[in-house]
Amino acid sequence: MNWKKVICIAAAISSCATCAGVEAETIPQEQQAISNQQLADAEMMALLWMRTAAEYRALCYQAYNAALAQVDKAIADKKRKKKPLAIVLDCDETVTDNTAAMALSTAEGNGAFTPLWWRNSVHAEISEAMPGALDFLRAVEKRGVAIFYVTNRYSAMNYEQTMNNLKALNFPSVDAKHVLMMDDLKVSDKQPRFDKIAKKYDVVVYMGDNVGDFPLKTKGKSLDERSDIIDSAKKDFGTRYIIFPNPAYGSWVSALSKDYLTMTPNQRAQFFKEFLSKGISAETKQKYDNEKNKPL
Ligand SMILES: [Mg+2]
Predict the structure, then answer these.
(1) 20 to 30 A from 213, CA-CA: which of 82, 86, 95, 230?
(2) What is the pTM of this model?
(3) Residue 268 belongs to some domain of the structure
């Protein structure tokens, strides 16, 4: 199998959403190192924040606390007795922390989190527990509420390593019934797995770092469509849907551009410039320009 084919297949199966069906070799070789460094530079602040900021930890705790409050509320609700209760959660950057692998790559001047890089990182079994994740999962387990991990790690390539890693973290319910990975390369949409769980369980909360982790039909939607869908579900965030911060990667990047990884350095510089100013009105810009060089 040649490199190009490997990249294309791996792109289709990756859960690392910066990998948006790209063909890395389309960038001229002499520009690849510049491009990789450019991507690393763009990743650095996001990873610094996730790996060091007290605010990141606080947001994780806040998310788990909110989810546990909903679990307790559901347990106390006498009307919710028809089906057993369950929570549904994503793995990566929802309970498992992959920032070490990203940070190591970025420190080497490579922010191109390609599908092959992702597979190798998963196979290294170095995902860590996010702050508060283990306590949260144990608390849910103790309450007798079922835990389902719905992850887009591709089972044919990553099943054994994922199960090993989750077990090593002492997470509960790490078995074939409760860990639902992506079995079909053509079905990265989690909705069929959500539906399967909801047939037998009363799902209290869905948890994830990506809008695709919620049953909101955001798969394949544009940047603006995604925002509209989330706006229309706004009352459910913090209760039925619990989201975690992830500025390092996600389908928000591929929604910006399917070609994010394969842009030339010049194209990417232009892309950053254009999207940074998206939504800023001429009036706002004018007001800013009027004041920006005034002395104190
Ligand atoms: Mg995730």
Answers:
(1) 82
(2) 0.90
(3) yes
